[in-house]
Write a structure and sequence with these properties.
- The chain has 722 residues and is α+β, with helices and mostly antiparallel strands.
- It contains 20 helices and 26 strands.
- It is 37% helix and 23% strand.
- The two termini are 34 Å apart.
């Protein structure tokens, strides 16, 4: 209940942050009955929502109750406390909840937020018929809010507060601070200053957006001459500044383009505000924050309907922090192949050479340009032995062809004879072929196969690596080779699409080089990866698996954490630690184990494991370092540099964070044990420092132990076999 209550305050600015929540809670009590009404409305809403069995995660985030908070503060500002008043407050809280759930459910189906619409409608429902309640009167508490200060601290506190509120600040600064405070129906410098400072501490991006929203609104009003109608403190705070925060850094990944659109949308908000003010003025209803909600919902929906994301990227995973949203997205963009592409592997065993790649000079042109041809070469760089006059002379002829990924046999041809060397069959261009369906709209075609070697039939389900047929010389094939392409249709010879191979090794002078989601180039000697059975088994964390570790924490106390593996409603896997209420989401695609997100306590053992095993290659060769980008927010000890970086992060980056991990068994004498070493490095203007080191020890039972050491933290955790 406490997290849901506190988040009801901070979520108004799109945060789940205790400092911001406490600051807002404090300033609401500058008008005592407004603060009390807001708190009572939140508590009532949380209790009702919890008793009705509404989604606990949504409730905990404050999404069901923040509209009730705004309604309560508004009612406490305008109406005098009485029995009738508190009865109406309870009714208003219930109505706000009903509207939040109903409107939210309708808009969420389209991926849209409901924002403060429930608050506006609820307050209208109270305000318009308020004159019909004889025992409900208006209050002047908001006008004489200093009386509340006097009641709390007497003359001494009153003098201090009065001095602060009448400081000779610049007019523009004063308008900005009062506009921030007006979001909570106040008009004083102190409230605005407290919230502005809390926003600055919580998020430099959000703070800068409040300035941009304010200045754009102020300048536009002055230039357009609409100041008298649209430049009130409340309109600046609850509409213009909130539009800037929402579009500039919450619903959209912060960037130069999101900042630019913030500047564009503030005048749009002003136009809508002026229109609604005139329209609603006929029935004496205030506009409140309705223009903000309309503009943000319209723009969000506009962005959702685009076919191509372009420069404005809607936030894919919401962390309730513009910085974390930005850094995580930037990091995932570097790792985007893992998320964007279905993993295809090489369709053969051993080392083959790419004889024709994408847009090759022979047959890979136009609609059929994004394909691969593979052949086998010997040590003398020849594709055949003897004189090469027969198919059997060629090294790749009759070699196994395997499934590049899990799928279903959609179509096959197995009745075309092999060509004589140098001849081609243009009547049956593709020769014996097989088409596999992997996902709706995603197929692979393997062609020029040998007649009579097919091991599967139409409709069969195959696993990645299963034997399909053997390489032949049928169709338009002057000599034996394997043709492989990815397409969107189940038709033979469909238009190819540009699609990478998930993981493969390329033989170079320095040894084998691992490639991830790349496109092999012509002439490359490539081979499929081989997984290390011990590493693969250790990181094969299936749902309902329970991992229990004991460790010495930072102050030397022996503690125990247990993690249980679950899957969420979207079939995403995650580890959950009940002791710290932390979750770490992960993916294991059979070749890589990697974490995608962490939520919870950054001092939990699970978090240190998240950092240590951020991305693990499940294969060989040993000794190869795997380098992966990490989000900047994982660095906790370089506060000053990161705070400065936050201000310019939407425009440019001068800090990068990387994780490297390798298998290191140099000092390990046991064949039943594998040691993984990883570190996290931060680069600032080309100067690189090591921020942490980790060692993970694996055996046939799983992850036996791991160590994590940074500048301030040293953790040694051991697996408890239960």
């Amino acid at each position: 209940m406490l997290p849901a209550t506190m988040n009801s305050y901070s979520i108004i600015f799109f945060f789940n942050n205790k400092l911001l929540a406490g600051s807002i809670l404090l300033i609401t009590f500058f008008n005592f009955y407004a603060g009390l009404s807001g708190l009572l409305a939140v508590l009532a809403t949380v209790l009702i929502a919890n008793s009705m069995g509404l989604d606990k995660m949504t409730l905990k985030a404050g999404l069901y109750s923040f509209n009730a908070l705004l309604t309560g503060i508004g009612m406490g500002t305008f109406f005098a406390p009485s029995l009738v008043y508190f009865c109406l407050l309870l009714i208003a809280s219930l109505v706000s909840l009903l509207l939040s759930v109903t409107i939210g459910g309708s808009l969420y189906k389209h991926g849209l937020p409901f924002l403060s619409i429930p608050f506006v409608i609820t307050f209208w429902l109270i305000l318009l018929p308020s004159s019909q309640f004889e025992n409900l009167g208006l209050t002047q508490q908001s006008i004489y809010w200093m009386n509340n200060v006097y009641a709390i601290g007497g003359n001494s506190l009153l003098n201090v507060i009065h001095s602060l509120d009448t400081l000779p600040v610049n007019d523009i600064v004063g308008i900005y601070l009062r506009s921030i405070s007006s979001i909570f129906f106040q008009d004083n410098l102190i409230s605005g200053a407290i919230i502005a400072i809390a926003l600055l501490i919580c998020s430099r991006i959000t703070f800068s957006l409040t300035l941009i929203g304010f200045l754009t609104a102020y300048l536009f009003a002055r230039v357009s001459g609409s100041a008298a109608a649209s430049i009130t403190y409340y309109n600046i705070g609850a509409n213009y500044i909130m539009v800037a925060i929402a579009i500039g850094g919450f619903f959209v990944i912060p960037s130069a383009y999101s900042y630019l659109w913030t500047i564009i949308l503030v005048p749009v908000t002003s136009l809508i505000l002026l229109f609604l003010s005139k329209l609603l003025g006929f029935i004496n209803l205030p506009v409140f924050s309705l223009p903000f909600s309309i503009v943000v919902i319209l723009f969000d929906y506009f962005l959702l309907l685009r076919k191509k994301p372009s420069k404005l990227i809607l936030t894919p995973i919401q962390y309730y922090s513009p910085e974390i949203n930005l850094y995580t997205f930037t990091n995932n963009e570097a790792r985007r192949s893992n998320f964007l592409y279905f993993p295809f592997h090489l369709p053969f065993w051993g080392e083959w050479t790419v004889t024709q790649g994408h847009d090759g000079q022979h047959t890979h042109k136009g609609d059929w340009g994004k394909a691969y041809d593979f052949m086998l070469f010997d040590d003398e760089s020849k594709t055949y032995n003897s004189n090469g006059s027969q198919c059997e002379h060629y090294h790749c002829y009759n070699k196994p062809v395997v499934a590049p990924a899990d799928g279903t046999v959609e179509y096959l041809i197995d009745n075309i004879d092999d060509n004589e060397i140098g001849q081609v069959n243009t009547t049956n261009n593709w020769g014996n072929s097989i088409i596999l369906r992997h996902l709706p709209g995603l197929y692979t075609q393997l062609s020029h196969l040998k007649k009579g070697t097919f091991k599967v039939a139409k409709g069969d389900f195959v696993k990645q690596g299963d034997l399909l047929a053997h390489c032949g010389n049928s169709g338009r094939s002057p000599e034996p080779h394997l043709h492989f392409q990815v397409q969107t249709l189940p038709l033979m010879g469909s238009r190819t699409i540009d699609y990478p191979i998930a993981y493969y090794n390329e033989k170079e002078e320095s040894g084998l080089q691992l490639h991830q989601f790349c496109r092999p180039v012509e002439g490359a000697l490539v081979s499929g990866i081989k997984t290390n059975s011990l590493i693969k088994k250790a990181f094969e964390i299936i749902p309902n698996t329970l991992l229990k570790y004991t460790y010495l924490n930072e102050i030397g106390h022996l503690k125990t954490e247990q993690w249980e593996a679950y899957t969420d409603d979207y079939n995403n896997k995650y580890l959950y630690c009940k002791e710290t209420e932390s979750s770490a989401y992960y993916i294991n695609d059979g070749s890589m184990f990697y974490f995608t997100a962490f939520y919870g306590n950054h001092k939990s053992l699970l978090y240190y494991f998240y950092l240590s095993a951020y991305k693990v290659f499940l294969g060989v060769p040993e000794g190869e370092k795997l380098r992966t980008a990490m989000p900047l927010n994982v660095i906790r000890n370089k506060k000053a540099a990161i705070v400065v970086h936050d201000f310019i992060a939407p425009f440019t980056n001068f800090i990068r964070v990387w994780n490297t991990i390798e298998t290191d068994n140099s000092g390990n004498n046991s064949a039943d044990t594998v040691i993984l070493k990883s570190d996290i490095r931060m680069t600032v203007f080309r100067k690189t420092t090591i921020e942490s080191n980790s060692i993970i020890t694996l055996n046939m039972n799983g992850i036996l132990e791991f160590e994590y050491e940074s500048h301030k933290t040293k953790i040694q955790a051991k697996w408890l076999n239960s």
